Fold each of these.
Amino acid sequence: MSPNANQQRIVILIAGFLAWMFAGLENSLFILVHRQMMLDLLGSTTAETLITEWFAWFQAAFLCGAAVGGWLFGWLGDRWGRTRAMGLSVLCYSSLTLVCYWVHDVHWMWALRFLACLGFGGTWPNAVALVSEAWPSASRPLLAGVMGTAANFGFVLLGCIGYAYSITNDSWRWVLLVGASPLVLAAWILWRVPESTRWLEARLASPHKSTAGRAPVVEVFRPPLVYRTLLGIGLGAIPVVGTAANANWVVPWRDQYESRRAETLLANSTSTSQVASSDAKTSKPKGDPRQKAKTQIIRSSGAIFGSLLGGFIASLVGRRLTYFLISLCTFLTSSWLFSQMTPGQDYFDVFVFLLGFFGVTYFGWLPLFLPELFPTHVRSTGTGISFNTGRILAAIVVLVAALRMDLFEGDYAQVGFWSGMIYVVGMVIIWFAPRTEAKTT
């Protein structure tokens, strides 16, 4: 291997890691600022139920946008090249997040969030395909773990920023500027990062596969690949639904708890002080704005370790057994956390860490397994469809849960408990997966 080839591989790994890391930051951005954003856009007296409903709508915008973006930019990755499609994906999510800084209407904010998340969905398949094709087979378990950790570094980074600098009803838009910072990264990827040599070779060997003669989207839904595509969609859907409809409720749950705790403390103080009672009539308790950022940091810190191990464990004990064990451990952790604990309880943070650890180990497994299902000329398309289509199901679950919060009596814990049943499905469908070799073609 020449020094120049080795240097190119390192550049590709750095580019893929950073693209997906900032996509992770983009993912967590509206979760972290949601409550303050709604109280600013809709008014400080907005009811909790309406805030919850809008949380679901913004989650749905993210999930549906990512699903469509995964299909669109995955297709572009097979037609135009991995590097170009990845650079355009980063440009999409960062530039449209910047536009959100000047928006004051909640409906326009929702629409821009959907469009920005097209780029989020398009980043993963192209980053994974580019990195997996640039490095030899022996490196892939490690690289799958590294790529799996990237988004979680983004979660932790934004959580640390939110913990250091308070996010309030009057000061939350600055977070959107943080989300727009990858514009510089997009320019570097488009101008300086080399293209996948395997993709270039495949295009030269079979030029008809990169033209309109055979669309990659059509090919992955035809024999002999259709079974693998449908299976990949199912396997990719479990952690996506689990993250969006299960684990993501931990942050607003903590925020809600802190707000109610502040209300209780204020009520207790007004019972013994007439002056405090007078002040309470003109103020609304906000709780500690740093606690939800702390919860995000803890959960995402666990996720970093879990996703790093996903590829290693799969290479040691096998793809199918690893996925089954991840599903089992995540199910047990989620069930205990949401049914037996509250945010103010001892060991709550420990279980949040474990939920992040087990629940995101999937994302160290997926970058190893999904590319193995598809040949080079449709790898970006197949991987993007497999990973992102489950987001549509996740959006439906989140919306139903939020719009029918009356069934759960406004209790985030009940939503988290019942949505955690998705991991049981994962324990079943993994046994229908084929045994794949570590190397890809």
Note: Residues 8 and 268 are 63 Å apart (CA to CA).
Amino acid sequence: MRKPRWPKVNSRSIAALVLAVAVGGVIGWLAHVPEPATEPPHYAGKLAPIQPPARRSVEPSPSSRDSAALNPAPPVAPTAPSLAPEALKDLPPADVARPHNVPPPENGAPKAAPPWRRYAIATPPLDGRIPIALVIDDVGVDVARSRRAIDTLPAAVTLSLLPYGAAIDRQAGEARARGHEIIVHVSMEADSRAVDPGPNALYTDLPPDEIARRFDWALSRFSGYVGFNNHMGSRFTSNEAGMRVVLAEAKRRGLLFLDSKTAPETIGARLSHEFGVPFASRQVFLDNDSGAGAVAKQLAQLEAVARRDHGAIAIGHPHDGTLAALAAWIPTLAGKGFVLVPLTALVKAPPGAKASAAGG
């Protein structure tokens, strides 16, 4: 049998064949590579939240609760607790720039009226009745009770909001929308340092620029206010150097000062007159004892003071007992010859200031 004869294949032909197969394989593989995904692959595990960068904050030194010999400051009640530490960490540092209490300009120029006039609410006609101004302090920290005060108290009741309250700019806007006049409750140093009056409080041993910076922080937390009053502050309101820094700035900004009068030796009235700052002073504390019965007795004292002085200013807090007592007392005022007025109605304007359109 004759053996088949295979064609002769030289080495060059073999090399060409191998190269052709390799190239063809690469081309085929590339043709089947999947397109890149348009979304990241699904992650079944729980992603850790992004942590915000650490913030610097101005931590005040320890201080104490106010005490006044004649009329002690109201104690901190369990119904209106301070913010928890986890809430305080979200406060911005004192050097963060915030919008201040100035409305948008009209026709390229700001309004001429200072904020204590611009944001004042209208005073109701007195018609021979005796005016009483109620100020509710510490609004903004206990959100539920602050909400009750904002929603249920008459618009003539002035609300003083702590600058470190929860979402305080929103609460201030809601209070304004309900018709309330609002002020800033500025934390200040008390007689001793056993109790902290709050973040960025004003202390007598701080340099003037730091006092001004902390005061600016408090005033930058919300807008629409007519002025401020002191939270605690029996030591600070008796300190001339510190109060000069604060009242000079109040004059520059056109704000009124309500002295909560937590110490009989306060110099608020004297320096306010010197600087030409609109001024008022608290005459009665309503709720050193926040039980409804005790508050009712203080309201009777308020009536007596108002009759004697032809008007009076009282300070209370959004405690359950206080709000309950006010709900029962306010409807009786007209029959007794009293009328509720906003704080600005009883503020002493600086010399030369024109009377407000509202009659304050």
Note: The chain is about 30% helix and 10% strand.
